[in-house]
Amino acid sequence: MYGGTEKFQTDPHWRDLILFYEYFHGDNGAGLGASHQTGWTGIVARLLDLFGRLDAETALRNSKGR
Questions:
Q1: pTM value > 0.90
Q2: Can you tell me the distance from the alpha carbon of 30 to that of 25, in angstroms, rounded to the nearest whole number?
Q3: Which of 2, 10, 4 is nearest to 31 (CA)?
Q4: Measured between alpha carbons, how far is 40 from 12 in angstroms, rounded to an integer?
Q5: Which of these, 41, 39, 19, lies nearest to 30 by C-alpha position?
Q6: What whole-number distance in Å separates Cα of residue 20 and Cα of residue 58?
Q7: Dist. CA 62–CA 30, nearest whole Å
Q8: Alpha helices, H only, the chain
Q9: Is the dihedral of CA 40, 38, 13, 30 positive or negative?
Q10: Sign (positive/negative) of CA torsion 33, 36, 40, 42?
Q11: SS3 65
């Protein structure tokens, strides 16, 4: 995921952090492009997690009272 960047793969302070980039290198997966928008792109990971755990029936049942 981090291409040839050893620090992000093995350092205990960095290895569990997921960095978001605009583009990724097709051969080695290195992040390319802007990474300064991690606040915006980071929310996508939370939304994917939310919608992966939430089914339509539960969402509709919980929103009827609002």
A1: no
A2: 5
A3: 2
A4: 25
A5: 19
A6: 30
A7: 41
A8: 6-10, 38-53, 56-63
A9: positive
A10: positive
A11: coil
d(CA 45, CA 40): 10
Q: Is 55 left (phi over 0), alpha (psi -120 to 50) or beta?
A: beta
Q: The tokens 């997966």 sit on which residue?
A: 29
pLDDT higher than threshold 80 for residue 56: yes
Residues 4-48: pLDDT tens digits? 778 877 888 877 777 777 777 888 877 777 766 556 667 888 888
Structure token digits, residue 45 = 């990971």
pLDDT at 66 over 60: no
Strands 23-24 and 31-32: antiparallel
CA 46 – CA 48 distance, rounded (Å): 5
